[in-house]
């Protein structure tokens, strides 16, 4: 589980770096599909991971700033770093005994839904990779090479 | 590990169904980013999973047909099904003792690279989710709702 989170965190860092090579206008330009903009996509990735792990599984009282309050690259990267400090210990301490524990989620429609921790963790992993795939298309639309999505070659695994 | 493969297989099946609601022309229209076309993206996902798991990890003599030989939705879905029969047993029999085993890959440049099985498996998982994220953008460009990427809500986990 941890390795896929580490992959996502490394890729996210590289997308923040990529964003520094692009104008602010491009980062906030309306695009087709997904969240519709590059910067809000990165915000959404951070907020979703934080919301599910700290707010959901750990059931902490968390506060997720609205996008407007962190609407710059630096502020979103700072938001990501703050969330990371809070949620990374849970991910690093993950073990198989947590797989089947249950959390209760209140959906936007006010319904209570039960999810296994293992399901939530994989949801968060897939969620980030999916949205990063969308960024890679928008990157090519801008005429720029996207961050590589390859997991192999990132030295996440020692040999 | 298995759950993320099951997620990918379920999502892939839904994209094949989605493709049936779209003209052949749209499936083969040149697009910006990724593999550049919808149908070749699905082919690429199948070939990559099969190549790494059966050809790479299991070191079987496999044959991957060039795209031109399976260049229709039905043929790619059949190709996917044939590969699935071959590779699914390995995924279902996955266990932690396989994590650190080593496979040798010969890169396109002819170099030998060693990878842990666990790294390859996660590479394959992330690879498919990434390309599916790209399809979701192209789907909106066509004006169609994409297949949901949510992992939660797919009943992959019993409660």
Automatic annotation (TrEMBL), chains A, B:
<keyword id="KW-0479">Metal-binding</keyword>
<dbReference type="GO" id="GO:0046872">
    <property type="term" value="F:metal ion binding"/>
</dbReference>
<dbReference type="Pfam" id="PF05163">
    <property type="entry name" value="DinB"/>
</dbReference>
<dbReference type="InterPro" id="IPR034660">
    <property type="entry name" value="DinB/YfiT-like"/>
</dbReference>
<comment type="similarity">
    <text>Belongs to the DinB family.</text>
</comment>
<feature type="binding site">
    <location>
        <position position="44"/>
    </location>
    <ligand>
        <name>a divalent metal cation</name>
    </ligand>
</feature>
<feature type="binding site">
    <location>
        <position position="127"/>
    </location>
    <ligand>
        <name>a divalent metal cation</name>
    </ligand>
</feature>
<protein>
    <submittedName>
        <fullName>Damage-inducible protein DinB</fullName>
    </submittedName>
</protein>
<dbReference type="InterPro" id="IPR007837">
    <property type="entry name" value="DinB"/>
</dbReference>
<feature type="binding site">
    <location>
        <position position="131"/>
    </location>
    <ligand>
        <name>a divalent metal cation</name>
    </ligand>
</feature>
């Amino acid at each position: 589980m941890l390795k896929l989170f580490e992959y996502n965190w490394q890729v996210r860092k590289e997308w923040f770096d990529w964003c520094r090579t692009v104008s602010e206008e491009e980062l906030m330009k309306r695009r087709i599909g997904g969240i519709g903009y590059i910067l809000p996509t990165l915000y959404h990735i951070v907020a979703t991971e934080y919301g599910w792990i700290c707010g959901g599984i750990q059931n902490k009282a968390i506060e997720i700033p609205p996008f407007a309050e962190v609407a710059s690259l630096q502020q979103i990267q700072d938001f990501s770093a703050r969330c990371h400090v809070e949620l990374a210990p849970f991910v690093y301490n993950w073990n198989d005994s947590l797989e089947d524990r249950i959390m209760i989620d209140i959906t936007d429609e006010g319904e209570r839904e039960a999810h296994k921790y293992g399901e939530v963790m994989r949801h968060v992993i897939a969620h980030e990779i999916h949205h990063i795939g969308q960024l890679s298309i928008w990157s090519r639309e801008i005429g720029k090479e996207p961050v590589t999505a390859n997991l192999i070659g990132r030295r996440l695994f020692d040999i």
